Structure formats: C-alpha cells, structure tokens
Amino acid sequence: MKEVLRFDNVCMHYHTKQGETVAVKDLSFSVKEKEFVGIIGPSGCGKTTLLSLAAGLLTPSKGKVENGGVSFGYMLQKDELFPWRTIEKNLFLPLEIKRKCTDENKARVLALAEKYGLKQFLKSYPSALSGGMRQRAALIRTLALDPNVLLLDEPFSALDYQTRLSVCNDVYAIIRNEQKTALLITHDISEAISVADRIIVLSKRPATVTATHALDFTENEPLKRRENKAFSAWFELLWRELNA
User: What strand order describes the sheet that includes 19-32?
Assistant: First the structure.
C-alpha cells in the first residue's frame, strides 16, 4: 500500500518569553494507506504536536512532513458537540464551514448516521445522548467531509472505563468499515494494542521514535484482542519501553 504520511527528521521548536522548548527532535516514521497506527509516549512528550504537524496546522522547524495532498479529519478528546444544535445540525457543521452543504453531501452524512445507529437521535440535542453515543456522533461529524486520514487525539479519555471499551470497539469498526487511515495518540497502552496494526513508541520530550512494533493479532475487534494470550506480553514489552 502507498504511503499517505511521512515524517523525515522532523524537529519542532517553540519560542516563548521563557526561552526555547524543543518538542520534537529528529522524528521519522511513515503511515500507509488504510493502516491504523497507534502512537504512545510519556506525558508531555509532544504527541499532540505531532498530530498538528501531520495535519499541516504547524510547520516544522526542521525536516519535512509529506502527506501527498490527502485530507485530514481531527477527532478531539471531547466530543465538542454544540449543545444548542441538534445532532443532525452538529453532523452538518463541517459541510457548512466548508460551504459544501449540498443535498448529496447531506444525504451521505445522514446515511452514515443511519448505518451507525444515530438515525433515531438526529432531532435530539447532545444532552439527550450518552457519552458513548455523543462520541459516535463526533466521529461521524469528522467523517462528514470524507477525509482520507483520521487523526485521533485521545478520543476516549473523557469516558468512564466501561463506556471507553464499548466506544473504542464502535469507533474501530466504523474506521475499518469506511476503510480510513487512522493515527491514534493515546496514553493507554492497552488501548493502542487493542486497535493498532502498528505501534510507534516515543521518547520523553523532545520526542523521537524509540521503537516501532507491527502487531500480529488475527482478531479484528478490540475486545477480542484483549482476550488474546499475547495481549499481556505486548503490554509488558511496551510498558518497559515507555519506562526505560
């Protein structure tokens, strides 16, 4: 499969009144089309900066980020649904912002909502939905403009543990069904193991790649992966690398 994203010796420096902070240093990796890549690293190591660089929201201080002109969708830690808009209106928001609110595009978004169990909630307001359903709506909103690559910035961290497992399963299934490329930032080692084709381990700040692992699970559901005997061995290895 072709590459859709490549970091080549990327450095990112921030300048403040207190001085210079090096967030990312000599960072190199690539992501292939339809691949689900998980990125883990110590807190404050620059993982969110990495997503901003990938999407072109930041320009690297040194090195190069190549994305071949693909489009990106960004899913945040919280659903950020507007409480005064119905779920339907929230789903249409990206189309309105980009002035692409055509009948064809709206029909495609509504078809996604029906496909993934939101049809009966379209006229409801976010307060009427559970945390899991709200996050599912947030993902469909992210898919409204049909992006090639989804950037997931700890999208389950605001949920309780039980809901988090269920929503992770749902989001994984939607991303796979829609054949999207995904780049997931997470502090949760178990979460990364349960969804990723490949896991990239970052060092403490300034972030650089310390290890890359291709996972060999045959299971295609996060909850089933967690039941695999190899799951704990992967967890132990990644925990050691993070805490080295």
Answer: 19-32, 3-16, 62-66
The domain 3-78+148-242 belongs to what CATH superfamily?
P-loop containing nucleotide triphosphate hydrolases (3.40.50.300)
For residue 160, what are the contacts with CB-CB under 8 A and spacing of at least 6? Answer: 131
How far apart (Å, rounded) are the C-alpha atoms in residues 189 and 235?
7
Q: Residue 189 is inside which H or E element, if any?
A: helix 189-195
Q: Which positions of the chain have pLDDT values less than 50? A: none
54 residue type, one letter: A
Identify residue 81 by its one-letter amino acid code.
L
Verdict on whether the full-model pTM lies above 0.85: yes
Dihedral of CA 164/170/174/177: which sign? Answer: positive
| Strand partners of residue 15 | 20
d(CA 94, CA 107): 14
**Model pLDDT for residues 157-214, shown as the tens digit of each residue:** 777 888 888 888 888 998 999 999 999 999 899 999 999 999 999 998 888 999 999 9
Question: Cα–Cα distance between 103 and 169 in angstroms, integer?
Answer: 31
pLDDT at 222: 92
- Rounded Cα gap, residues 200 and 129, in angstroms: 34
Distance, CA of 190 to chain centre: 15
Task: Give the span between the Cα atoms of 6 and 66, in whole angstroms.
Answer: 5
From 21, 45, 18, 6, select the one nearest 241 (Cα to Cα): 45
Spell out the long-range contacts of 232-241 with Cβ–Cβ below 8 A and sequence spacing 24 or more: 234/193, 235/189, 235/190, 235/193, 237/213, 238/40, 238/189, 238/192, 238/193, 238/199, 238/201, 238/213, 239/189, 241/201, 241/210, 241/211
